Amino acid sequence: MKETPLSNCERRFLLRAIEEKKRLDGRQTYDYRNIRISFGTDYGCCIVELGKTRVLGQVSCELVSPKLNRATEGILFFNLELSQMAAPAFEPGRHSDLLVKLNRLLERCLRNSKCIDTESLCVVAGEKVWQIRVDLHLLNHDGNIIDAASIAAIVALCHFRRPDVSVQGDEVTLYTPEERDPVPLSIHHMPICVSFAFFQQGTYLLVDPNEREERVMDGLLVIAMNKHREICTIQSSGGIMLLKDQVLRCSKIAGVKVAEITELILKALENDQKVRKEGGKFGFAESIANQRITAFKMEKAPIDTSDVEEKAEEIIAEAEPPSEVVSTPVLWTPGTAQIGEGVENSWGDLEDSEKEDDEGGGDEAIILDSIKMDTGVEVSDIGSQDAPIILSDSEEEEMIILEPDKNPKKIRTQTTSAKQEKAPSKKPVKRRKKKRAAN
Amino acid sequence: MEEEMHTDAKIRAESGTGSSPRGSGCSLRHFACEQNLLSRPDGSASFLQGDTSVLAGVYGPAEVKVSKEIFNKATLEVILRPKIGLPGVAEKSRERLIRNTCEAVVLGTLHPRTSITVVLQVVSDAGSLLACCLNAACMALVDAGVPMRALFCGITCALDSDGTLVLDPTSKQEKEARAVLTFALDSVERKLLMSSTKGLYSDTELQQCLAAAQAASQHVFRFYRESLQRRYSKS
Prior knowledge:
The complex is a heterodimer. Chain A is 28% helix and 24% strand. Chain A is of the alpha+beta class.
């Protein structure tokens, strides 16, 4: 679907509001929207909601052979997908530059910052290493995808547990989750992206732009930082020219925001771990708020299936027996077999069926005398023409065959009367001559 | 660990309550549904069956590409995305099954030359995935206000090696089962809209599973009704 264009008055309204330091949702310039993190039942699955922007993250692992130039390091793979439910304009194939930009930024933020210790992912040097795959799906687009995605990625990585492996000499044992508790990944630090949107050539800035604000912004500055105030990635797009102290100011703001967000993430992870350890209920079912009227839960419902057998027997007794299915194949030669007989061979009736088709087309005009057969033209008027008409010099139309007896054979109720009337008249009938191989 | 505890509890309940081996102790897992949770799609629903969770978003009736338009009815499109990896053949076949079910129920002739798109995202898979997708799609279509002639629901049955019928199986039960059957039933007369089966079973067993699914669908439709009543009631 095409994206709905933003109207000029909406654009002007937003820009005027920003000039007066007002945001449509009532936030201050440096305020983030509410962040909500919920975990699923399997390890490594989380949903992050940044206001209304929603991202699902899942981490999975697999044992593979390492890259040739990095034989002792594990492999990290990131994939962000813009699901078609996130915005009506997100179609596969379209928006590819937004997708590439987001994926690249995410990779730089997480891979190049070395937040995950890839050496610890090595099992047997040069042969087997862990490949960690992070899949992120954008479920709802309300602005600032990159922040939500980076939070989801890092939360999912921190939440994930990989199966335990032990190496004794040449033997490698992979333990299932039942045998030994899975092991968390070794994460050095948590880089989180913070986005700044600029308006009016860098005069005004907003933190965490929502979708409307993103549409009217001039440029975007993304700074990925961790709580130790180390910048992992910085990217400025949109072609705005920023002053040095603007960038420094943004990095200071980013430091404060990242500290808050990291605290929130650690608290959420701790809560989830506590619930799992105590044996309480966890998973997405628990994160559905009970008090919302749009949410509803039903406990386990027992189903009475005691009369199932009687019902089934009734139905089978009433039903007709299944038709006999011939299923013995006949082998002609190795590689050629035949199952069943098929319908009667109708190749010999090619001309009749052809003629019938042509006649059927001209039926509406109630053709009694002769019928024009042409390669493409629909038979129409011709009510009163007696002599056969030569339409073209094509060799195909040379032969004239008088076969009045054959006419009534192929019966179609509409054409029956026409054909029977034609039979006694014995008019020459032109017919298109195809290969008469069958005859 | 906790997941296994839950599964064990359920199996115990099933074998404990029913004395007959034919599974009169069948039960559906804990259901939960949340509607209108996404702001961009016209309708959205998240459906949870035990630990299986599917999120559905519906856009429509909306603009359709000229190549895909049908002159007298709406073009229904279903997209199913797995959680890990790229979508493959299994997703395509499930999309087709869900689309056939939706087309039988949605009144497409009221909106000719438009498109209705149902996007499904698997949030977690712990058994009965196709049934959960069908339920999520139905709730999302209701939330979007797409006109339908009936509601539909999905029920999965599993037959294990000694013929015991299990409704709404977990992934462990599905793996160990001899046959897994999924049915889509409509709400007006509990008639069959779609069936997709895998495994070996006799025609008696098929009819038994169908009858059990029809009994189970009553609960699902009651759940739909109660959740919509909660949402639209004035008290």
